Model the fold of this input.
Amino acid sequence: MHRTRSACFALVIAIAFACLPPASAAAPLCAAVPPPEPAAYAAHIREVNRALGIPPDYAARHDLRLQPEARDLVPVPRDVYGRKVEMVAPAAAALKRMFAAAARDGIKLETVSGFRSVAYQTHLVRLKLKRGMSIEQALKINAVPGYSEHQTGCAIDLTTPGVPAADGSFANSRAFTWLQQHGASYGFSLSFPPGNPYGYEYEPWHWRYTAGTATAANPR
Ligand SMILES: [Zn+2]
Done:
């Protein structure tokens, strides 16, 4: 009896292991829920934010999730000033398809900002503080370092001719209307709508690619 029970137990363990993904299988890039980050990374981010004077409970209070920092990046169309813009490969491929589809509909989409490192994000917040902003004001405009979607390489700020970069008037453009109608077909969604719970201002220009969410089986 004891031996039978042991055999069953061993079988259950074997089945459980067989059903687990192999250890090498990493979560896809741009997953809806990013995998937990190593403790050392979390500690580094806490230190970066402490140095900026960000309250230690700020992220938790605003329901912000620690974001991975992308390593392997590929170029996407250069920004409106001709500067290099990068994203991770699956997001870049989806963006390319989306730009082409928009162009076929007579809409010109342009990039403003793609991947930004934790260090660069820290620099942006520090600049705001140097100009006399409070940390609370700065964090309505720039994400908390470690928590920015831009550091994942999955998010992109977009504009269209005639609209200044990262400007609220983008919401009134034909390009924005097109994105609202078609962005999801390519896996892109608006991260910060009006009244978002994260404490950020409405950002009609900021779109994030999420793996596996493209609604069109064969996006144009
Ligand atoms: Zn953005």
The first strand starts at residue 74 and ends at 76. Residues 113, 150, 155, 157, 206 surround zinc ion (CB under 6 Å). The two ends are 62 Å apart (CA to CA).
